[in-house]
Protein backbone atom coordinates (compact mmCIF):
# COMPACT_ATOMS: atom_id res chain seq x y z
CA UNK A 1 0.00 0.00 0.00
CA UNK A 2 1.37 3.47 -0.92
CA UNK A 3 1.95 5.71 2.09
CA UNK A 4 2.06 9.54 2.05
CA UNK A 5 2.92 12.22 4.56
CA UNK A 6 -0.40 13.83 3.70
CA UNK A 7 -3.40 12.92 1.57
CA UNK A 8 -5.79 15.67 0.53
CA UNK A 9 -9.30 14.61 -0.51
CA UNK A 10 -10.76 17.04 -3.03
CA UNK A 11 -8.95 19.29 -5.52
CA UNK A 12 -11.00 22.49 -5.10
CA UNK A 13 -9.32 25.70 -3.91
CA UNK A 14 -8.90 24.35 -0.35
CA UNK A 15 -7.43 21.01 -1.40
CA UNK A 16 -5.07 22.43 -4.04
CA UNK A 17 -3.50 24.90 -1.66
CA UNK A 18 -3.18 22.32 1.14
CA UNK A 19 -1.39 19.87 -1.18
CA UNK A 20 0.95 22.46 -2.70
CA UNK A 21 1.79 23.95 0.71
CA UNK A 22 2.72 20.46 1.97
CA UNK A 23 4.81 19.77 -1.14
CA UNK A 24 6.65 23.08 -0.70
CA UNK A 25 7.57 21.89 2.80
CA UNK A 26 9.21 18.85 1.18
CA UNK A 27 6.43 16.43 2.15
CA UNK A 28 5.09 13.52 0.13
CA UNK A 29 1.62 14.70 -0.78
CA UNK A 30 -1.27 13.30 -2.83
CA UNK A 31 -4.61 14.70 -3.94
CA UNK A 32 -7.61 12.44 -4.54
CA UNK A 33 -10.15 13.70 -7.05
CA UNK A 34 -12.84 12.27 -9.26
CA UNK A 35 -12.37 12.10 -13.02
CA UNK A 36 -13.61 15.29 -14.73
CA UNK A 37 -13.69 17.25 -11.44
CA UNK A 38 -10.08 18.49 -11.23
CA UNK A 39 -10.29 21.97 -9.69
CA UNK A 40 -13.43 21.16 -7.74
CA UNK A 41 -16.82 22.82 -7.78
CA UNK A 42 -14.96 26.12 -8.02
CA UNK A 43 -13.56 25.46 -11.50
CA UNK A 44 -16.12 23.06 -12.93
CA UNK A 45 -19.59 24.15 -11.81
CA UNK A 46 -19.30 27.10 -9.41
CA UNK A 47 -17.15 30.20 -9.24
CA UNK A 48 -15.28 30.09 -12.54
CA UNK A 49 -18.07 29.07 -14.96
CA UNK A 50 -20.54 31.46 -13.29
CA UNK A 51 -18.13 34.40 -13.35
CA UNK A 52 -17.15 33.66 -16.95
CA UNK A 53 -20.80 33.42 -17.93
CA UNK A 54 -21.34 36.81 -16.34
CA UNK A 55 -18.53 38.32 -18.43
CA UNK A 56 -20.01 36.76 -21.57
CA UNK A 57 -23.46 38.15 -20.71
CA UNK A 58 -22.08 41.64 -20.09
CA UNK A 59 -20.05 41.58 -23.29
CA UNK A 60 -22.70 40.17 -25.62
CA UNK A 61 -25.64 42.17 -24.26
CA UNK A 62 -23.56 45.37 -24.23
CA UNK A 63 -25.30 46.20 -20.95
CA UNK A 64 -22.38 48.16 -19.52
CA UNK A 65 -22.16 50.34 -22.63
CA UNK A 66 -25.80 51.43 -22.75
CA UNK A 67 -25.36 54.65 -20.78
CA UNK A 68 -22.94 55.72 -23.52
CA UNK A 69 -24.49 54.28 -26.68
CA UNK A 70 -28.20 54.20 -25.83
CA UNK A 71 -30.59 51.67 -24.31
CA UNK A 72 -30.93 49.66 -27.52
CA UNK A 73 -27.20 48.98 -27.78
CA UNK A 74 -26.33 45.26 -28.02
CA UNK A 75 -23.28 43.54 -29.38
CA UNK A 76 -25.42 40.63 -30.51
CA UNK A 77 -29.15 40.08 -30.76
CA UNK A 78 -30.52 36.55 -30.22
CA UNK A 79 -27.80 35.45 -27.85
CA UNK A 80 -27.70 31.65 -27.73
CA UNK A 81 -26.46 29.24 -25.11
CA UNK A 82 -23.64 28.30 -27.51
CA UNK A 83 -22.49 31.95 -27.56
CA UNK A 84 -22.32 31.91 -23.79
CA UNK A 85 -20.80 28.49 -23.19
CA UNK A 86 -17.98 28.93 -25.69
CA UNK A 87 -16.28 31.37 -23.34
CA UNK A 88 -17.05 29.31 -20.23
CA UNK A 89 -15.58 26.12 -21.68
CA UNK A 90 -12.46 27.95 -22.81
CA UNK A 91 -11.78 29.44 -19.37
CA UNK A 92 -12.63 26.26 -17.44
CA UNK A 93 -10.28 24.25 -19.69
CA UNK A 94 -7.44 26.71 -19.13
CA UNK A 95 -7.93 26.76 -15.36
CA UNK A 96 -7.93 22.94 -15.15
CA UNK A 97 -4.63 22.94 -17.09
CA UNK A 98 -3.10 25.46 -14.69
CA UNK A 99 -4.07 23.38 -11.65
CA UNK A 100 -2.88 20.11 -13.14
CA UNK A 101 0.43 21.63 -14.07
CA UNK A 102 0.90 23.24 -10.64
CA UNK A 103 0.29 19.93 -8.90
CA UNK A 104 2.63 18.05 -11.23
CA UNK A 105 5.52 20.49 -11.05
CA UNK A 106 5.31 20.49 -7.25
CA UNK A 107 5.47 16.70 -7.19
CA UNK A 108 1.95 16.20 -5.81
CA UNK A 109 0.55 12.79 -6.81
CA UNK A 110 -2.99 12.83 -8.25
CA UNK A 111 -5.03 9.78 -7.41
CA UNK A 112 -8.14 9.62 -9.57
CA UNK A 113 -11.33 8.26 -8.05
CA UNK A 114 -13.71 8.60 -5.11
CA UNK A 115 -12.25 8.28 -1.64
CA UNK A 116 -13.87 6.64 1.40
CA UNK A 117 -12.27 6.28 4.80
CA UNK A 118 -11.61 2.69 5.84
CA UNK A 119 -9.89 3.71 9.06
CA UNK A 120 -8.35 6.79 10.68
CA UNK A 121 -5.14 6.49 8.61
CA UNK A 122 -6.40 4.75 5.48
CA UNK A 123 -8.72 5.39 2.55
CA UNK A 124 -10.00 3.33 -0.36
CA UNK A 125 -10.14 5.00 -3.79
CA UNK A 126 -12.62 3.65 -6.30
CA UNK A 127 -11.95 4.60 -9.92
CA UNK A 128 -14.47 4.87 -12.77
CA UNK A 129 -14.10 1.14 -13.59
CA UNK A 130 -14.90 0.14 -10.00
CA UNK A 131 -11.31 -0.84 -9.13
CA UNK A 132 -10.27 -0.16 -5.54
CA UNK A 133 -6.88 1.11 -4.39
CA UNK A 134 -5.95 1.49 -0.71
CA UNK A 135 -3.56 4.21 0.42
CA UNK A 136 -2.50 5.49 3.83
CA UNK A 137 -1.09 8.70 5.27
CA UNK A 138 0.12 10.32 8.48
CA UNK A 139 -2.19 13.29 7.91
CA UNK A 140 -5.39 13.88 5.95
CA UNK A 141 -7.04 17.06 4.73
CA UNK A 142 -10.74 16.73 3.93
CA UNK A 143 -11.62 19.30 1.26
CA UNK A 144 -14.62 17.63 -0.34
CA UNK A 145 -16.90 20.66 -0.57
CA UNK A 146 -20.65 20.68 -1.06
CA UNK A 147 -23.41 19.83 -3.51
CA UNK A 148 -26.64 21.76 -4.13
CA UNK A 149 -29.39 21.00 -1.59
CA UNK A 150 -32.18 19.11 -3.38
CA UNK A 151 -35.38 18.70 -1.37
CA UNK A 152 -37.53 15.71 -2.29
CA UNK A 153 -40.54 18.02 -2.77
CA UNK A 154 -38.90 19.43 -5.91
CA UNK A 155 -38.98 17.50 -9.13
CA UNK A 156 -35.48 18.21 -10.55
CA UNK A 157 -35.33 17.09 -14.18
CA UNK A 158 -32.11 18.83 -15.17
CA UNK A 159 -33.88 20.59 -18.05
CA UNK A 160 -36.68 22.77 -16.72
CA UNK A 161 -36.09 22.44 -12.97
CA UNK A 162 -32.40 22.77 -12.31
CA UNK A 163 -29.90 23.39 -9.53
CA UNK A 164 -26.85 25.63 -9.87
CA UNK A 165 -24.72 22.75 -11.25
CA UNK A 166 -27.25 21.99 -13.97
CA UNK A 167 -27.99 25.54 -15.02
CA UNK A 168 -24.80 25.62 -17.04
CA UNK A 169 -26.26 22.91 -19.24
CA UNK A 170 -29.53 24.62 -20.24
CA UNK A 171 -30.11 24.21 -23.97
CA UNK A 172 -31.67 27.66 -24.46
CA UNK A 173 -32.04 31.01 -22.77
CA UNK A 174 -35.47 30.71 -21.09
CA UNK A 175 -38.16 33.33 -21.62
CA UNK A 176 -39.13 33.21 -17.95
CA UNK A 177 -37.45 31.85 -14.85
CA UNK A 178 -38.24 31.40 -11.17
CA UNK A 179 -35.21 31.60 -8.90
CA UNK A 180 -35.81 29.96 -5.51
CA UNK A 181 -33.55 31.48 -2.84
CA UNK A 182 -32.14 35.00 -2.88
CA UNK A 183 -28.73 33.91 -1.58
CA UNK A 184 -25.56 34.80 -3.45
CA UNK A 185 -26.04 32.09 -6.09
CA UNK A 186 -29.68 32.99 -6.71
CA UNK A 187 -29.00 36.71 -7.05
CA UNK A 188 -25.96 36.26 -9.30
CA UNK A 189 -27.88 34.04 -11.72
CA UNK A 190 -31.03 36.20 -11.49
CA UNK A 191 -28.86 39.16 -12.56
CA UNK A 192 -27.39 37.31 -15.52
CA UNK A 193 -30.68 35.97 -16.87
CA UNK A 194 -32.43 39.31 -16.36
CA UNK A 195 -29.63 40.93 -18.38
CA UNK A 196 -30.28 38.37 -21.15
CA UNK A 197 -33.92 39.43 -21.21
CA UNK A 198 -35.42 36.52 -19.22
CA UNK A 199 -38.40 37.52 -17.08
CA UNK A 200 -37.13 36.56 -13.61
CA UNK A 201 -39.09 36.07 -10.36
CA UNK A 202 -37.02 35.63 -7.21
CA UNK A 203 -38.65 33.88 -4.25
CA UNK A 204 -37.09 34.17 -0.82
CA UNK A 205 -38.48 32.97 2.49
CA UNK A 206 -36.75 35.70 4.51
CA UNK A 207 -38.12 39.26 4.60
CA UNK A 208 -35.11 40.62 2.71
CA UNK A 209 -32.11 39.42 0.72
CA UNK A 210 -28.36 39.38 1.41
CA UNK A 211 -28.90 40.86 4.87
CA UNK A 212 -25.19 40.66 5.71
CA UNK A 213 -24.50 43.47 3.20
CA UNK A 214 -24.95 47.25 3.46
CA UNK A 215 -28.70 47.96 3.38
CA UNK A 216 -28.47 50.99 1.09
CA UNK A 217 -26.46 48.99 -1.44
CA UNK A 218 -28.92 46.09 -1.42
CA UNK A 219 -31.73 48.60 -2.02
CA UNK A 220 -29.75 49.98 -4.96
CA UNK A 221 -29.21 46.48 -6.34
CA UNK A 222 -32.91 45.65 -6.01
CA UNK A 223 -33.77 48.88 -7.83
CA UNK A 224 -31.39 48.00 -10.69
CA UNK A 225 -32.78 44.46 -10.93
CA UNK A 226 -36.39 45.67 -10.87
CA UNK A 227 -35.50 48.06 -13.68
CA UNK A 228 -34.53 44.94 -15.63
CA UNK A 229 -37.89 43.32 -14.96
CA UNK A 230 -37.03 41.18 -11.92
CA UNK A 231 -39.93 40.55 -9.51
CA UNK A 232 -39.10 39.85 -5.87
CA UNK A 233 -41.34 37.86 -3.57
CA UNK A 234 -39.97 38.02 -0.03
CA UNK A 235 -41.39 36.20 2.97
CA UNK A 236 -42.63 33.42 0.69
CA UNK A 237 -41.71 29.78 1.20
CA UNK A 238 -41.62 27.41 -1.77
CA UNK A 239 -43.60 24.29 -0.99
CA UNK A 240 -43.04 22.37 -4.20
CA UNK A 241 -42.12 22.72 -7.85
CA UNK A 242 -44.08 20.86 -10.51
CA UNK A 243 -43.08 20.11 -14.07
CA UNK A 244 -45.69 20.05 -16.80
CA UNK A 245 -45.33 19.56 -20.56
CA UNK A 246 -45.86 23.29 -21.14
CA UNK A 247 -43.64 24.56 -18.31
CA UNK A 248 -43.18 24.62 -14.55
CA UNK A 249 -45.34 25.73 -11.64
CA UNK A 250 -43.73 26.87 -8.41
CA UNK A 251 -46.20 26.43 -5.58
CA UNK A 252 -45.76 28.67 -2.54
CA UNK A 253 -46.93 27.97 1.03
CA UNK A 254 -49.16 31.05 0.67
CA UNK A 255 -51.06 29.27 -2.09
CA UNK A 256 -49.63 31.31 -4.99
CA UNK A 257 -48.58 29.49 -8.15
CA UNK A 258 -45.91 30.95 -10.39
CA UNK A 259 -45.50 29.66 -13.93
CA UNK A 260 -42.13 29.80 -15.68
CA UNK A 261 -40.19 28.07 -18.45
CA UNK A 262 -37.38 27.22 -16.01
CA UNK A 263 -36.85 27.05 -12.25
CA UNK A 264 -33.43 27.52 -10.71
CA UNK A 265 -33.47 26.03 -7.23
CA UNK A 266 -30.63 27.72 -5.38
CA UNK A 267 -31.64 27.40 -1.75
CA UNK A 268 -28.35 26.40 -0.11
CA UNK A 269 -25.77 23.64 -0.33
CA UNK A 270 -25.04 20.47 1.60
CA UNK A 271 -21.62 19.10 2.65
CA UNK A 272 -20.63 15.82 0.94
CA UNK A 273 -19.07 14.14 3.98
CA UNK A 274 -21.64 11.30 3.64
CA UNK A 275 -19.93 10.07 0.45
CA UNK A 276 -16.62 9.89 2.34
CA UNK A 277 -17.75 7.55 5.16
CA UNK A 278 -16.21 9.90 7.73
CA UNK A 279 -17.49 7.71 10.60
CA UNK A 280 -14.84 5.12 9.70
CA UNK A 281 -12.23 7.72 10.62
CA UNK A 282 -13.97 8.53 13.92
CA UNK A 283 -15.69 11.73 12.67
CA UNK A 284 -19.33 12.83 12.73
CA UNK A 285 -20.90 15.43 10.48
CA UNK A 286 -23.76 17.79 11.37
CA UNK A 287 -27.21 17.60 9.74
CA UNK A 288 -25.94 19.64 6.75
CA UNK A 289 -22.99 17.28 6.22
CA UNK A 290 -20.45 19.73 7.63
CA UNK A 291 -17.47 18.96 9.85
CA UNK A 292 -16.42 20.84 12.97
CA UNK A 293 -12.84 22.10 13.27
CA UNK A 294 -10.71 24.08 15.74
CA UNK A 295 -8.80 27.28 14.95
CA UNK A 296 -6.09 25.23 13.16
CA UNK A 297 -8.70 23.45 11.01
CA UNK A 298 -8.17 20.20 12.97
CA UNK A 299 -11.20 17.93 13.35
CA UNK A 300 -11.80 16.05 16.58
CA UNK A 301 -9.39 13.39 15.21
CA UNK A 302 -6.05 15.19 15.58
CA UNK A 303 -4.30 14.13 12.34
CA UNK A 304 -7.36 14.83 10.15
CA UNK A 305 -7.99 18.41 9.03
CA UNK A 306 -11.05 19.80 7.22
CA UNK A 307 -11.07 22.95 5.10
CA UNK A 308 -13.19 24.82 2.58
CA UNK A 309 -16.94 24.56 2.14
CA UNK A 310 -17.16 21.33 4.14
CA UNK A 311 -16.62 23.36 7.33
CA UNK A 312 -19.31 25.92 6.46
CA UNK A 313 -19.20 29.71 6.69
CA UNK A 314 -17.90 31.72 4.87
CA UNK A 315 -17.70 29.04 2.13
CA UNK A 316 -15.79 31.11 -0.41
CA UNK A 317 -13.01 30.18 -2.80
CA UNK A 318 -10.60 32.72 -1.32
CA UNK A 319 -11.12 31.67 2.31
CA UNK A 320 -10.97 28.00 1.29
CA UNK A 321 -7.51 28.46 -0.26
CA UNK A 322 -6.16 30.14 2.84
CA UNK A 323 -7.64 27.47 5.13
CA UNK A 324 -5.95 24.77 3.02
CA UNK A 325 -2.53 26.42 3.30
CA UNK A 326 -2.92 26.93 7.05
CA UNK A 327 -4.02 23.35 7.67
CA UNK A 328 -0.98 21.93 5.85
CA UNK A 329 1.41 24.25 7.68
CA UNK A 330 -0.10 23.31 11.00
CA UNK A 331 0.14 19.61 10.23
CA UNK A 332 3.91 19.91 9.75
CA UNK A 333 4.63 22.46 12.47
CA UNK A 334 5.35 25.33 10.05
CA UNK A 335 4.51 28.72 11.58
CA UNK A 336 1.76 30.79 9.90
CA UNK A 337 1.07 34.50 10.33
CA UNK A 338 -2.02 35.90 11.95
CA UNK A 339 -5.01 36.55 9.72
CA UNK A 340 -8.05 38.49 10.80
CA UNK A 341 -11.37 36.99 9.79
CA UNK A 342 -12.80 40.52 10.25
CA UNK A 343 -10.86 41.60 7.17
CA UNK A 344 -12.07 38.91 4.79
CA UNK A 345 -13.68 40.62 1.83
CA UNK A 346 -16.97 39.52 0.28
CA UNK A 347 -17.55 39.89 -3.47
CA UNK A 348 -21.00 39.31 -4.91
CA UNK A 349 -20.98 39.24 -8.70
CA UNK A 350 -24.51 40.40 -9.21
CA UNK A 351 -25.07 42.91 -12.02
CA UNK A 352 -24.02 45.46 -10.73
CA UNK A 353 -21.45 43.91 -8.44
CA UNK A 354 -21.16 44.39 -4.68
CA UNK A 355 -18.17 44.07 -2.46
CA UNK A 356 -17.34 44.91 1.12
CA UNK A 357 -14.91 44.43 3.92
CA UNK A 358 -15.38 45.13 7.62
CA UNK A 359 -18.60 46.05 9.32
CA UNK A 360 -21.93 47.43 8.14
CA UNK A 361 -23.76 50.52 9.43
CA UNK A 362 -26.33 48.27 11.11
CA UNK A 363 -23.68 46.24 12.95
CA UNK A 364 -21.89 49.37 14.17
CA UNK A 365 -25.15 50.90 15.35
CA UNK A 366 -26.10 47.70 17.22
CA UNK A 367 -22.67 47.69 18.88
CA UNK A 368 -22.96 51.42 19.81
CA UNK A 369 -19.82 52.30 17.90
CA UNK A 370 -19.98 55.94 16.76
CA UNK A 371 -19.11 56.32 13.07
CA UNK A 372 -19.27 58.77 10.20
CA UNK A 373 -20.07 57.89 6.58
CA UNK A 374 -18.14 59.15 3.58
CA UNK A 375 -19.58 58.49 0.11
CA UNK A 376 -18.18 58.85 -3.40
CA UNK A 377 -20.63 58.42 -6.25
CA UNK A 378 -19.24 57.08 -9.51
CA UNK A 379 -21.25 59.71 -11.40
CA UNK A 380 -18.99 62.35 -9.83
CA UNK A 381 -15.80 60.51 -10.71
CA UNK A 382 -14.39 61.13 -14.17
CA UNK A 383 -13.69 57.40 -14.56
CA UNK A 384 -17.35 56.66 -13.78
CA UNK A 385 -18.41 58.96 -16.63
CA UNK A 386 -15.86 57.44 -19.02
CA UNK A 387 -17.07 53.92 -18.19
CA UNK A 388 -20.76 54.84 -18.34
CA UNK A 389 -21.44 53.88 -14.72
CA UNK A 390 -23.58 56.53 -13.02
CA UNK A 391 -25.08 54.31 -10.32
CA UNK A 392 -21.92 53.00 -8.59
CA UNK A 393 -20.84 54.18 -5.18
CA UNK A 394 -18.08 53.72 -2.65
CA UNK A 395 -18.92 54.13 1.01
CA UNK A 396 -16.44 54.40 3.88
CA UNK A 397 -17.44 53.92 7.51
CA UNK A 398 -15.05 55.82 9.76
CA UNK A 399 -14.73 55.65 13.55
CA UNK A 400 -15.97 59.01 14.84
CA UNK A 401 -13.29 59.17 17.53
CA UNK A 402 -10.08 57.45 16.42
CA UNK A 403 -10.79 57.99 12.68
CA UNK A 404 -9.88 54.39 11.70
CA UNK A 405 -11.72 52.70 8.82
CA UNK A 406 -14.38 50.31 10.10
CA UNK A 407 -15.93 49.24 6.83
CA UNK A 408 -15.71 49.71 3.07
CA UNK A 409 -18.75 49.05 0.88
CA UNK A 410 -18.63 49.28 -2.90
CA UNK A 411 -21.37 48.94 -5.52
CA UNK A 412 -20.89 49.09 -9.27
CA UNK A 413 -18.12 48.49 -11.79
CA UNK A 414 -14.96 46.88 -10.36
CA UNK A 415 -16.36 46.89 -6.81
CA UNK A 416 -14.73 43.54 -6.01
CA UNK A 417 -11.29 44.89 -7.03
CA UNK A 418 -11.72 48.31 -5.46
CA UNK A 419 -12.46 46.97 -1.99
CA UNK A 420 -8.90 45.74 -1.52
CA UNK A 421 -7.52 49.27 -1.17
CA UNK A 422 -9.72 49.78 1.87
CA UNK A 423 -8.91 46.29 3.13
CA UNK A 424 -5.20 47.13 3.10
CA UNK A 425 -5.69 50.44 4.90
CA UNK A 426 -7.81 48.65 7.51
CA UNK A 427 -5.32 45.80 7.88
CA UNK A 428 -2.53 48.28 8.57
CA UNK A 429 -4.66 50.19 11.09
CA UNK A 430 -4.82 53.29 8.85
CA UNK A 431 -7.14 56.21 9.37
CA UNK A 432 -9.30 58.25 7.03
CA UNK A 433 -6.53 60.87 7.05
CA UNK A 434 -4.23 58.59 5.07
CA UNK A 435 -6.84 58.51 2.29
CA UNK A 436 -7.47 62.26 2.50
CA UNK A 437 -3.77 62.98 2.00
CA UNK A 438 -2.98 60.27 -0.56
CA UNK A 439 -2.77 61.10 -4.27
CA UNK A 440 -4.53 58.59 -6.55
CA UNK A 441 -4.17 58.12 -10.29
CA UNK A 442 -6.68 60.17 -12.25
CA UNK A 443 -9.08 59.32 -13.78
CA UNK A 444 -9.68 56.14 -11.74
CA UNK A 445 -12.41 54.65 -9.61
CA UNK A 446 -9.79 54.40 -6.84
CA UNK A 447 -9.94 58.18 -6.64
CA UNK A 448 -13.31 57.51 -5.00
CA UNK A 449 -11.40 56.64 -1.82
CA UNK A 450 -10.10 60.18 -1.57
CA UNK A 451 -13.50 61.68 -2.41
CA UNK A 452 -15.27 59.51 0.19
CA UNK A 453 -12.56 60.15 2.78
CA UNK A 454 -12.90 63.90 2.27
CA UNK A 455 -16.67 63.58 2.60
CA UNK A 456 -16.33 61.74 5.93
CA UNK A 457 -13.68 64.08 7.28
CA UNK A 458 -15.68 67.18 6.26
CA UNK A 459 -18.66 65.84 8.21
CA UNK A 460 -16.43 65.13 11.21
CA UNK A 461 -14.96 68.64 11.01
CA UNK A 462 -18.47 70.13 10.89
CA UNK A 463 -19.32 68.29 14.13
CA UNK A 464 -16.05 69.45 15.72
CA UNK A 465 -16.91 73.05 14.70
CA UNK A 466 -20.34 72.87 16.31
CA UNK A 467 -18.67 71.65 19.50
CA UNK A 468 -15.99 74.34 19.36
CA UNK A 469 -18.57 77.10 18.75
CA UNK A 470 -20.68 75.76 21.60
CA UNK A 471 -17.69 76.06 23.90
CA UNK A 472 -16.88 79.65 22.82
CA UNK A 473 -20.55 80.64 23.37
CA UNK A 474 -20.40 79.08 26.85
CA UNK A 475 -17.30 81.15 27.53
CA UNK A 476 -19.00 84.34 26.29
CA UNK A 477 -22.05 83.71 28.49
CA UNK A 478 -19.99 83.14 31.60
CA UNK A 479 -17.68 86.10 30.93
CA UNK A 480 -18.08 88.95 33.47
CA UNK A 481 -20.01 91.96 32.14
CA UNK A 482 -17.69 94.93 31.84
C1 LIG B 1 -22.51 28.84 -8.56
C2 LIG B 1 -21.44 29.16 -7.58
C3 LIG B 1 -20.76 30.36 -7.68
C4 LIG B 1 -19.76 30.68 -6.77
N1 LIG B 1 -19.12 31.88 -6.90
C5 LIG B 1 -18.14 32.20 -6.02
C6 LIG B 1 -17.44 33.42 -6.16
O1 LIG B 1 -17.70 34.21 -7.06
N2 LIG B 1 -16.46 33.69 -5.29
C7 LIG B 1 -16.13 32.82 -4.28
O2 LIG B 1 -15.20 33.11 -3.50
N3 LIG B 1 -16.77 31.66 -4.12
C8 LIG B 1 -17.77 31.33 -4.97
N4 LIG B 1 -18.43 30.14 -4.84
C9 LIG B 1 -18.03 29.25 -3.74
C10 LIG B 1 -16.75 28.46 -4.10
O3 LIG B 1 -16.91 27.80 -5.33
C11 LIG B 1 -16.45 27.48 -3.00
O4 LIG B 1 -16.29 28.20 -1.79
C12 LIG B 1 -15.22 26.68 -3.26
O5 LIG B 1 -15.30 25.95 -4.47
C13 LIG B 1 -14.99 25.68 -2.12
O6 LIG B 1 -13.79 25.02 -2.35
P1 LIG B 1 -13.48 23.62 -1.69
O7 LIG B 1 -12.01 23.43 -1.90
O8 LIG B 1 -14.01 23.54 -0.33
O9 LIG B 1 -14.24 22.51 -2.53
P2 LIG B 1 -14.94 22.36 -3.92
O10 LIG B 1 -14.55 23.41 -4.90
O11 LIG B 1 -16.38 22.19 -3.61
O12 LIG B 1 -14.31 21.00 -4.44
C14 LIG B 1 -14.45 19.81 -3.72
C15 LIG B 1 -13.97 18.66 -4.58
O13 LIG B 1 -13.92 17.50 -3.78
C16 LIG B 1 -14.22 16.39 -4.60
N5 LIG B 1 -14.71 15.29 -3.76
C17 LIG B 1 -15.81 15.29 -2.99
N6 LIG B 1 -15.93 14.09 -2.37
C18 LIG B 1 -14.89 13.35 -2.77
C19 LIG B 1 -14.46 12.04 -2.51
N7 LIG B 1 -15.15 11.25 -1.68
N8 LIG B 1 -13.34 11.58 -3.14
C20 LIG B 1 -12.64 12.39 -3.97
N9 LIG B 1 -12.99 13.63 -4.25
C21 LIG B 1 -14.09 14.11 -3.66
C22 LIG B 1 -15.31 16.89 -5.52
O14 LIG B 1 -15.34 16.11 -6.72
C23 LIG B 1 -14.85 18.33 -5.76
O15 LIG B 1 -14.12 18.40 -6.96
C24 LIG B 1 -19.42 29.78 -5.74
C25 LIG B 1 -20.09 28.54 -5.65
C26 LIG B 1 -21.08 28.25 -6.54
C27 LIG B 1 -21.78 26.91 -6.43
N1 LIG C 1 -19.70 35.62 -5.03
C1 LIG C 1 -19.59 34.69 -4.08
O1 LIG C 1 -18.78 34.81 -3.18
C2 LIG C 1 -20.46 33.47 -4.14
C3 LIG C 1 -21.24 33.24 -5.25
C4 LIG C 1 -22.07 32.14 -5.24
C5 LIG C 1 -22.07 31.27 -4.18
N2 LIG C 1 -21.29 31.50 -3.10
C6 LIG C 1 -21.36 30.59 -1.95
O2 LIG C 1 -22.14 29.45 -2.22
C7 LIG C 1 -22.89 29.08 -1.07
C8 LIG C 1 -24.30 28.67 -1.41
O3 LIG C 1 -25.04 29.80 -1.90
P1 LIG C 1 -26.65 29.77 -1.96
O4 LIG C 1 -27.06 31.07 -2.53
O5 LIG C 1 -27.15 28.53 -2.62
O6 LIG C 1 -27.09 29.53 -0.47
P2 LIG C 1 -27.55 30.47 0.71
O7 LIG C 1 -27.79 29.54 1.85
O8 LIG C 1 -26.64 31.60 0.88
O9 LIG C 1 -28.94 31.08 0.20
C9 LIG C 1 -30.07 30.31 0.03
C10 LIG C 1 -31.31 31.20 0.22
O10 LIG C 1 -32.44 30.44 -0.11
C11 LIG C 1 -33.48 30.73 0.82
N3 LIG C 1 -34.40 29.57 0.87
C12 LIG C 1 -34.11 28.32 1.32
N4 LIG C 1 -35.19 27.51 1.16
C13 LIG C 1 -36.19 28.25 0.60
C14 LIG C 1 -37.53 27.97 0.20
N5 LIG C 1 -38.07 26.75 0.29
N6 LIG C 1 -38.26 28.97 -0.33
C15 LIG C 1 -37.72 30.21 -0.47
N7 LIG C 1 -36.47 30.54 -0.11
C16 LIG C 1 -35.69 29.56 0.41
C17 LIG C 1 -32.73 30.97 2.13
O11 LIG C 1 -33.49 31.74 3.02
C18 LIG C 1 -31.47 31.70 1.63
O12 LIG C 1 -31.64 33.09 1.63
C19 LIG C 1 -22.84 30.26 -0.12
O13 LIG C 1 -22.16 29.86 1.04
C20 LIG C 1 -22.09 31.33 -0.84
O14 LIG C 1 -21.17 31.98 0.01
C21 LIG C 1 -20.49 32.59 -3.06
Describe what you observe in this structure:
By secondary structure, the chain is an alpha/beta fold. The protein folds into three domains: 2-148 and 270-332, FAD/NAD(P)-binding domain (3-Layer(bba) Sandwich); 161-267, 3-Layer(bba) Sandwich (FAD/NAD(P)-binding domain), CATH 3.50.50; 352-471, 2-Layer Sandwich (Enolase-like, domain 1). Helices cover 34% and strands 24% of the residues. Strand 9 (176-180), helix 6 and strand 10 (199-204) form a beta-alpha-beta unit. The mean pLDDT is 96. Nicotinamide-adenine-dinucleotide binds at residues 180-186, 188, 203-206, 237-238, 266-269, 315-316, 347-349.
Q: What is the fold's blueprint, element by element?
A:
Elements: E1 2-9, H1 13-24, E2 29-33, H2 40-44, H3 47-61, H4 66-69, H5 81-105, E3 109-112, E4 114-119, E5 122-126, E6 132-142, E7 146-148, E8 161-162, E9 176-180, H6 184-196, E10 199-204, H7 215-227, E11 231-234, E12 238-244, E13 247-252, E14 257-260, E15 262-265, E16 269-271, E17 304-306, H8 317-331, E18 346-348, E19 354-358, H9 361-366, E20 371-377, H10 382-387, E21 393-399, E22 405-411, H11 415-427, H12 432-437, H13 447-478
Parallel strand pairs: 1-2, 1-6, 2-3, 6-17, 8-15, 9-10, 9-15, 10-11
Antiparallel strand pairs: 4-5, 5-6, 7-16, 12-13, 13-14, 18-19, 19-22, 20-21, 21-22
Helix pairs in contact: 1-8, 3-5, 3-6
Residues 180-186, 188, 203-206, 237-238, 266-269, 315-316, 347-349 line the site of nicotinamide-adenine-dinucleotide.
Family: Belongs to the class-I pyridine nucleotide-disulfide oxidoreductase family.
Main location: cytoplasm
Binding site for NAD(+): 181-188, 204, 268
